[in-house]
Design the sequence.
């Protein structure tokens, strides 16, 4: 296929990197170059930041009414909906996710996000307006923060970027987007449409490595907030860089989701849920169910069904509607997963299925759906985020033990509990230290509900009205209602009440 050449979008113009350099975008299913993209650097990032700063300070976007900003998001949603098939194919080739997952999950949710925030843009309000002092009216006003740096991950390059730029733009901010270097194509395609609808400088896209573009976005004093989704180590670096001007940050930094199967669980439903939520998107998902805690009394039966269902997973060409799981994102990620599998074997876990590259697939970064049984809580495969199709099944004897083990990692993003007794399931859910806990389900996200983690999974919320807390400032405005030159409380200064 022909290799397409892209440009960045800065200050209302399509431009190359100032250095003239480009990098290759690789299709992980074929290992072929599918696009060349500008390799931006610090100077390109500065140009985008300056453009966003000018646009914000001029009021060209924040000065528009909520209805006007809402209209833009509605139009963008309509554009994505009409372009579903093409965008799904780009996501499939760019990321390696299956075409059916991109078309039936990613794209519909992206459309819904745009429409949700289009409506929410017209409902921003303060929490109170009253005379609390007895002398004047207090009111709350929400205002946009300013210039937002939105740094997206490679596993959901358009899906998660929408979570950032939709509420940021709805609230009146200007935005600089930095897509992951592995997967920049979908957001660049969206910009071809958005660029025709927005004032100059409101939305900019800079492609390039994190150590230059990302570092500039995090440290530049003209940026007011950084919203980042990625790994913990990079999140910690962003926190340090953001201290340059004490800018606000929002971080979603990964997870190691527990999947707690109670003794009375519907084994068929739980096993089905574990396979789907454990291997979707090739398990390159921070909420993927990677630690399966199963009560001793049902362990053999559950593991049998889990393995049987996993055997039916069809690994292959992500552009085929029949494929259930595509490749990993890169050769580097493939090697990472292989090292974790070897670690699991050496530390004594029992390999139940998978454990290597599919023999019949000669090209692409593929890895088999893999399950380890009899995993000990202290093993690396149980404690660390693998970001690949490797499930660990762990026995437990008591519910308190299951809760302690489930909470026994540095992450706190998502978890699920499976059981027929809803009272017990609710008690377990309330004790799990995770930002989202599902009961008899795993992975459901909706635009109306918040998503974000505890502990080293980060802080702040994506989705829902709560995300506007990330993209607005709260200002208290007070209006005197006495009309007096000397207010009744001035005696504390003057020394008498006359």
Sequence:
């Amino acid at each position: 296929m022909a290799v397409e050449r892209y440009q960045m979008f800065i200050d209302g113009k399509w431009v190359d990197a100032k250095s003239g350099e480009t990098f290759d975008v690789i299709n992980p299913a074929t290992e072929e170059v599918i696009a060349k993209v500008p390799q931006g650097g610090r100077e390109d990032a500065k140009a985008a930041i300056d453009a966003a700063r000018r646009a914000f300070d001029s009021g060209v976007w924040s000065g528009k009414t909520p209805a006007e900003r809402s209209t833009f998001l509605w139009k963008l949603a309509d554009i994505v909906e009409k372009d579903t098939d093409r965008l799904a194919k780009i996501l499939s080739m760019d990321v390696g996710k299956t075409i059916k997952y991109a078309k039936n999950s990613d794209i519909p949710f992206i459309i819904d996000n745009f429409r949700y925030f289009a409506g929410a843009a017209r409902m921003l309000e303060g929490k109170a307006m009253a005379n609390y002092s007895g002398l004047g009216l207090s009111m709350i006003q929400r205002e946009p923060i300013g210039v937002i740096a939105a740094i997206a991950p490679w596993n959901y390059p358009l899906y998660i970027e929408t979570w950032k730029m939709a509420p940021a733009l709805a609230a009146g901010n200007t935005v600089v987007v930095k897509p992951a270097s592995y997967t920049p194509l979908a957001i660049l395609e969206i910009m071809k449409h958005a660029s025709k609808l927005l004032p100059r400088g409101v939305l900019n896209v800079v492609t390039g490595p994190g150590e230059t573009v990302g570092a500039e976005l995090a440290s530049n004093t003209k940026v007011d907030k950084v919203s980042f989704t990625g790994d913990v180590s990079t999140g910690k670096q962003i926190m340090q860089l953001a201290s340059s001007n004490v800018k606000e940050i929002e971080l979603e930094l990964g997870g190691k989701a527990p999947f707690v199967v109670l003794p009375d669980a519907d084994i068929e439903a739980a096993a089905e849920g574990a396979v789907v939520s454990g291997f979707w998107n090739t398990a390159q998902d921070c909420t993927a169910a990677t630690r399966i805690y199963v009560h001793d009394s049902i362990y053999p039966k559950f593991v049998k069904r889990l393995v049987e269902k996993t055997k039916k997973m069809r690994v292959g060409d992500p552009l085929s509607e029949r494929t259930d799981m595509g490749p990993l994102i890169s050769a580097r990620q493939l090697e990472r997963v292989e090292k974790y599998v070897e670690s699991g074997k050496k530390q004594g876990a029992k390999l139940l299925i998978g454990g290597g590259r599919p023999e019949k697939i000669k090209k692409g970064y593929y890895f088999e759906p893999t399950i380890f049984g009899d995993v000990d809580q202290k093993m690396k495969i149980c404690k660390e985020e693998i970001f690949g199709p490797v499930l660990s099944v762990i026995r437990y004897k008591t519910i308190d033990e299951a809760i302690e083990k489930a909470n026994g990692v540095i992450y706190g993003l998502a978890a699920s509990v499976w059981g027929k007794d809803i009272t017990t399931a609710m008690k377990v859910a309330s004790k799990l230290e995770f930002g989202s806990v599902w009961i008899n389900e795993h992975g459901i996200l909706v635009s109306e509900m918040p998503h974000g983690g505890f502990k080293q999974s980060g802080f702040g919320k994506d989705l829902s009205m709560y995300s506007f807390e990330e993209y607005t400032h709260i200002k208290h405005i007070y209006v005197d209602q006495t009309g007096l030159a000397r207010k009744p409380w001035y005696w504390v200064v003057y020394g008498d009440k006359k």
